[in-house]
């Protein structure tokens, strides 16, 4: 067997990915994650259908704002957030509940490699689910426009640029929330508590001092969104939901990406330390 | 000769040094000191005596509250090194979701870093050794209790470990597979491996063990070869069963010896059960008795088995739990 550690680690990572991906993507009890992920696409498909049925010619500018609002308020804050709760918190917690975590703990795998492998599998699964959803949403929303208008928006306007940006934000959201909820799955027995605490923190993060804003995932994601949500258009000024779309002091794109990666890495390191000390004690579950 | 070469160095032994484990306020094991050499070592004790805790401690599934453990010179908190040399067949009866018997073994080998072809060959060999080749492609969830036990055994031996830890490995096996498994354990022990086996079926332990560790309420009450442990127990006279053609005459003569505290005819009427405080002296006298026309067919200790020793040390109530 090869004594080179990196070669060994990569081979072990592949083995973990093979085991985990099937479990995560094809789990019957994870069906709700697909529903959550593709709900916005259904919403947009419905919108397009109504537009076509009524024969109204839509305004691409309005729909771009509509997309920005749904992306920030529904897709980021609910679909991806709770989807990542379901995917990442189950990576360790689910195995403890199923009493099968010892299978990994009895293999000659460094616990940190196990954490990395599980995180990558969760990341890949969430990227497949939410990445495909964002592409589908885009086409569902702009489907009712005349093909010339659509082509003009996609190839000569900001269409593809926005799609790429939303896709990138979606992937970064999976990285950020994935890191947080992987750690939460190791630190907490009940996923409800960390999810509610995190949801509340993300909701108020726009109004806390700037230093503290850096400790929230949504701060970085909002900074990277290509279109700002005009709160008065979507919800009316002063509406509580419209406040969620506000990002008073956005970070620049490079610092937002870097900040998010550092935040996620910090949670991964914390998870690695915790899993290294973890004991198998199914009896107390 | 170097310490390692003598076979007694830390690289050749499983060592527990003053190891204690508490689950909150509940005692798992306390102040365990053991040096386990190669061969079959059985952990004996009723449920809750600390057998599984000791096994989980030496495989790093739980951490000691106090003390130090070394398995062939490797600390249990280094799984990447430990599980190249250790295989553990646990009592946990749960498996990764949706996995087949073959995948269960094969994936473990892939996790260990083996390439596909090598992992495939090793997995097939291990599955064949436990007689599960035909069922290997079926999901473990559809296996019977005995089949699950065997696939766990295949998982623990597939990488040819030097140390095999087996927690109640014969549970759920039918008599034929039981005998085959015992033969497999003996073969592995004869090849110089460490086998640590827990069992609460004491007659099984007698069959397979080179040495025993007797546990009660988290404490090691005795350890070593069972005959040596029996010899250490002074407050219970040694029982010897003598099969002969004239049991009544033998009983009468034996009772006249001052080292004999009791001599009675065996329930089947074909021998005499003697209790003595000095077995060596009694064996010498038996030679004289045999010259007086009594034909002695066999002489065997009647209480140098694990059950008797455990009862003497811990009490019959505990041993039958």
Query: Average pLDDT of chain A, to the nearest integer?
Result: 88
Largest interface: A-B, 34 and 31 residues
Q: Report how far the terminal alpha carbons of chain A are from each other.
A: 38 Å
Uncertain stretches of chain A: none
Our measurement of the CA-to-CA distance between the termini of chain B, rounded to an integer number of angstroms, reads 46 Å
How many helices of chain A? The count is 13
* Relative helix content of chain A: over 70%
Rg of chain A is 20 Å
Structural class, from secondary structure content of chain B? alpha/beta
The largest sheet of chain A is:
none
Average pLDDT for all residues of chain B: 87
Low-confidence stretches of chain B: 1-6
What's the SSE pattern of chain A?
HHHHHHHHHHHHH
Number of domains of chain A: 1
User: Looking at the structure, what is the overall shape of chain A?
Assistant: globular
Assembly state of the chains shown: heterodimer
Shape of chain B: elongated
What is the tally of beta strands of chain B? 13
Fraction in beta strands of chain A: under 5%
Describe this structure in words.
The complex is a heterodimer of chains A (285) and B (321). Chain A is mainly alpha-helical and 285 residues long. Chain A has one domain (4-284). In chain A, 76% of the residues lie in helices and 0% in strands. Chain A is built from 13 helices and no strands. Chain A has helices at residues 5-25, 31-54, 60-97, 102-105, 111-142, 147-156, 159-187, 192-204, 210-213, 217-224, 231-234, 240-244, 253-276. The model of chain A has no long low-confidence stretch (mean pLDDT 88). In chain B, the strands form 3 sheets. A 6-stranded mixed beta sheet of chain B has the order 5-6-7-3-8-9, sandwiched between helices. Chain B has a 4-stranded antiparallel beta sheet with strand order 11-12-10-13, with helices on one face. By secondary structure, chain B is of the alpha/beta class. The N and C termini of chain B lie far apart (46 Å). In chain B, α3 packs across α4 (116-129), α3 runs parallel beside α5 and α4 crosses α5. Classes of the chains: A mainly alpha (285), B alpha/beta (321). The A-B interface holds A 1-2, 8, 11-12, 14-16, 18-19, 22-23, 27, 95, 98-100, 102-111, 276-277, 279-282, 284 and B 23, 56, 59-63, 77, 79-84, 88, 90, 92, 94-98, 104, 107-108, 110-115.
